[in-house]
Amino acid sequence: MRAYGLVALLLLAIFGSIGAYLYQRISGFANRNFSPPPVVVSVDVAREEQWGAYLDSVGTIRSAQGIDLSAETSGEVVELYFDSGQAVKKGQLLLLLDDEVEQAARANQIASLELAQLLYDRDSKLVEQKSIPQSQYDRSRADLARAQAQLAETEARIRNKRIYAPFSGTIGIRHVDVGDYLSPGSAIASLQDLDQLEIDFTLPGRVAPQVRAGMQVELLVDAFPDRVYSARVSAIDSRVDMNTRNLLLRARLEESEGLLPGMFARVRIVQPDPVARVTVPETALTYSVYGDTVFVVRPHPGGEGQTAESVVVKAGDVRQGRVAILQGIEPGDQVVTAGQNKLYRDVKIAIGPALEP
Q1: What is the pTM of this model?
Q2: pLDDT one-digit tens code per residue, 252-280
Q3: 277 touches 231 (CB < 8 A)
């Protein structure tokens, strides 16, 4: 029995060794012939385009004519001739303060002026006839001038009790009602001419030689993301700010539909001479704190097929879905626009048929 046991152990060892050898050969053959399927990506071609150079800034839209209406004198509001949001004309009466005391004083001074005028006219004739001394005539003339000045002063105070529109525009939200007591400087409402809007913005002082009045300006406003507003530089400040080293510019909008004073806007001054830029779709650019990258299609190192190589680039402006690449790729390079998250070193790629350039 012991002999049979030894034979069985010997056969088991022999066949086990043969099985292990065959398993290793088959596994090695399979590993040598296995390769993962290519990663399907979308691509586009980097192309050279003529882009106008921009000087970028930000600013706040303002009205060429815009004020906060306020009272010059104190008094109770007795009449309002406007409502919030109303369009008004230049010279239109907007508000009346109580002027009862001033009107009474005016009536008294009109009477005093009439008396002074009569005495002056009479003394003018008498002094010619030498019936009165010259000093009496002089007093009459002075009394007349005093009465005229007092009446003019009272009428000026009466005018200050009335608020008129200094120019045509649109009234904002009113802050007063009938019966309110206004002190000098109290805010009544905002008046803005919405037909004439402009924007103030700054640029670094070093670009002063590149700007001049009349240059085209483009405005991008968050409230209307799909619209570009046009403007023209209307004025350039005569000095650079000593604290910020920035130069102040003002541009007058050529179109202002929908815009309101106080809106924030991104400003671009269009330079007259366009420059050549290599551009790719914005989706081809991967932003990173370590540097922006683009995957460029290259021949596979193994000699068959293609791969995607990560290239660090220097990105520029973004316009209409394309980004300018200032450094890193050349016109004609194929760049990956979708599927970057599946790529790794030396991976084989396949270009989607529907998106093949």
Answers
A1: 0.59
A2: 999 888 899 999 999 988 877 778 889 99
A3: no
